[in-house]
Amino acid sequence: MGSGRAFVRRVAHPVVRNQARLASTAQGQAIKKFINHGDDTPGLSCKDYSKTLHLPRPPIPPYAKVTEIAEAYSERTTAALYRQQWEERKDKEFFILHDGPPYANGHLHIGHAVNKILKDIINRFQLLQGKRVHYSAGWDCHGLPIENKALVGLDPSASPTKIRQVSRHYASVSVNIQRREFEQMKILADFSDPWTYRTYDKEYEIRQLRVFQQMVKKGLIVRRYRPIWWSPASGTALAEGELVYDDSHKSKSVYVKFPIKREDMSPELRKGFDSTLLEDLNFLVWTTTPWTLPSNMAVAINEEIDYVIARGEHNIIIAADAVEPLPDKMGTSLGSDILGTKYHHYYQKPDAPPNPVFSARWVKADSGTGVVHCAPGHGADDYFTMTSAGLLEDHPLVSPVDGKGEYTEDILGHVPHSRLGGSLIGRSVQDKGNEEVLRQLREAGRSIHVKQIKHKYPYDWKTKTPVITRATSQWFASIADVKEKALKVLENVKFHPEAGRARLESFIRERSEWCISRQRNWGVPIPALHDIATDEAYLSAESLDHIIPVLEKHGIDYWWEGPVEDFIPPHLQGKNLRKGTDTMDVWFDSGSSWSLLGNLHGEKQEGGPRISDVCLEGSDQHRGWFQSLLLTRIIAAAEGEETAPYKTVITHGFVLDEHGRKMSKSDGNVISPLAVINGTEQKSKLPVYGADVLRLWTASADYTDDMAIGQNILKQSAESYRKLRNSARFMLGVLAIPNKGPVDQLQSTKPGMGLIERWIMDRLYQTERTCREAYERYQFHRVVHALTDFSTISLSAQYFSFRKDAIYCDAQDQTRAAIVTVMKNLLHVYKGLLAPILPLVAEEIHEAEQKIIRASQVSRAEELTLEKRLNKESVFMQPWPVVDSAWEDTEARETMEILLAIRSSVLGLLEKARAGKGLGSSDEAVVYLADASSGAAPHHVFQLLQTHEPLLSTVFGTSYAWTTSQIPNNTDQNAWEFTDNIEISQCPLTITVRGSPKTKCPRCWKWTKPSKDALCERCTKALM
Ligand SMILES: [Zn+2]
């Protein structure tokens, strides 16, 4: 049956569908009817002639069988391919993409998929550029979320070793889950253990300790006493990420007076006010944490706002616009006049020096009284501002609160007499201790007003109890001295998007020290030894020289399990020591991962670790990994050899739902990457899309901003995927026809080639160049855009539709061979352009293409061996299909632009004929183009049309198209006619479309047949 061909001639899309499918559609039935009854040519029927056509034989099914494809091509496009290129390309240039490790906790979400797929597109593009790609996927395995999960099932008295054991198990289970899930995204990587890394691997931990040792050696690791978030309920320090905020926390707030002696007033203050106002003068502070008042070390004002003295029982200084209005505000003075003034507070010893006043821009008139109580031992903001103001250099922090949140005996060292301190010791600062402070202040007449307020306050996310801030001894990496070097090396780093540079720089500038110690069990130990009596810490390059080999021999757990004696280096022998219990901040774990690049899959690198060509993570990592990777690298580098760990930093946004909302379980709008690949239970919700559709969605979104995903968006991606694949399928179908003639390579050189072939080769050249540049610039949505345009417009709607007639019906001569050859080149380049984004479909096309090419070259006997060999040849081991610039063809492009513009008008007229005159196929029509310019000689655009007259009917899809100075009269009374006047490149044209004066050829269906008894001239020749 030849109905397949009939279908092709009627539908816009070039794909030949199979008989069964055709018969099942209404359109198919109509076509069959038309074939059987619509023509009565004697001799051969349509059916018989159709056998003489060269119809496409697509070797791949019309709809991708995604599950089968994934099974068939996975290995050769992922793990095996990765290992193969690593082995075979030893002499090739490296491309290193260092993987920022995801946290090993639970299943993957769509953000993980975006991250890995974007990385993969880059790697695959580089592989096609002939590079040797290094990509070792990693996992971040230590830290609190995992430890907390482990603790859930453990007895509260569980030993550190037991906690570590359970944590490790939990992390390894997560690693395995994520490994299997990443594999389904068809990433160019071997996800098995030897080819990947985990921060709990012993080798990793030892390497990390060596990096740490370098930092210790340079004196950059210091122990400091500093305020941190603390949960009295959990008895642990907390990181910012471990806090949740309660908007309706209740606190008792209090207004407290800090008296100012006359000799402590600044000269400006003394001069600016009447001396009666200066009698009994006080600062009035307002605080929501009265319990921190004994630790007050300064007050902050803002030198740029106005302050007044309010007269009452006592005179008090407050901001002129303070929230609480007070009567009798007298005089105004700029904050700067107050600077230099000092004061005393209730909890100071009488002989203690007065406390300073300093200016901070964050102080606002409407925040309390505009005079802010600062207790740097109980507030990170206070601590940082006072540190920057140089106020803490000679003054140790006051923080007399223990891990249970109770006042300690230390308070006696600060307060004026033991009775005052004694009634606070052992009392909780969140409860009785706070009440006692309020009572003492009230009794002493120091407080003015107490009121309960509701405000936002941090809670321990785990115990859901309020936290406090207290100072503890922690290990810090000192950043101050390396900051400038870090900023300097960033000058040579490229950022995409460029805004990332300023972000990363600002995070580095803001940081002066990095607290690297945590009071946790599940992590890499900070192997310090402490004097049991004094708690003095010993940590030096020398002590680590002794300790690290012990851990290397026995494993990291030995720090918790082994006797302290085993860790005491010779120079500390005889001291009474204990092992430190701090572990390292997990940002130090993942941050030191650049050190992996000193050993690429077992190949040691001369001259130290390499630099990653690209690092790509979510935009939140400017604050996190990009920073910790850079800082550890700079800190550990030898003097003068500081380099950034990356050459290019790429960041991506977050994934939102179709309405721009954050995904959350409670909103029910979460889309998991695995659901996109494998479908969901309710088939109507998400069908089985396969990895390529997920990847196409990822590539088509502009990832520099937030991305949207949802059922409709995925449906569009699936449709684009189908179209992209179908263009390849059509070309494969053409190549699979037993074509005669030179189709191995482009035999026809450009000058001998027709306009249409020159034009499509120019389009291919432009598309390849656009895609290559966009891949190089990491703008994958531009690749998708260029490829989709090329596939759906240039190929499907234009080139295929122009050339189907010649391919199906022409004799197998040189002209037709040239078309097939061009088609072959189009396919070859096209699959390469698709490959980084759609590896499975590219592999499917590649295999089908190779089979066709080889089948034409080898005997049947060789086919089996060939089959085996073919299975090993991935499309990614081919070179990138550069289109030679010789194919750039401005002339062909400009000429075709004119022809395509006229075509639009012709198609418009044909539509009118369809609607008004029952025109079926455009083959029934002919076109006249007349020069409507008034010049004596034909317009040069018209001359161009005359030159290309033989091609016009091909472009218009009509049986004939003529150029003429005057359109001939319509002599056939029954024939219809439609006319349009247009102007193309300043050339006025009259276009007339008429029914063909000839009849329909039963073989090619063009209305070019002169008489009833014959085929058309072209078909006659084709059958000779
Ligand atoms: Zn014909």
TrEMBL record:
It is an enzyme of class 6 (ligase). GO terms for cellular component: mitochondrion. Gene3D superfamilies: 1.10.730.20, HUPs, Ile-tRNA synthetase CP2 domain-like, Valyl/Leucyl/Isoleucyl-tRNA synthetase, editing domain. NCBIfam families: ileS. Keywords: Aminoacyl-tRNA synthetase, ATP-binding, Ligase, Nucleotide-binding, Protein biosynthesis. GO terms for biological process: isoleucyl-tRNA aminoacylation; mitochondrial translation. InterPro entries: aa-tRNA-synth_I_CS, aa-tRNA-synth_Ia, Anticodon_Ile_BEm, Ile-tRNA-ligase, Ile-tRNA-ligase_type1, Ile-tRNA_ligase, M/V/L/I-tRNA-synth_anticd-bd, Rossmann-like_a/b/a_fold. This is isoleucine--tRNA ligase. PROSITE patterns: AA_TRNA_LIGASE_I. It comes from the Eukaryota. Residues 757-927 form the Methionyl/Valyl/Leucyl/Isoleucyl-tRNA synthetase anticodon-binding domain. Belongs to the class-I aminoacyl-tRNA synthetase family. HAMAP family: Ile_tRNA_synth_type1. Its EC number is 6.1.1.5. Residues 77-709 form the Aminoacyl-tRNA synthetase class Ia domain. One of its GO terms (molecular function) is isoleucine-tRNA ligase activity. It comes from Dacryopinax primogenitus (strain DJM 731).
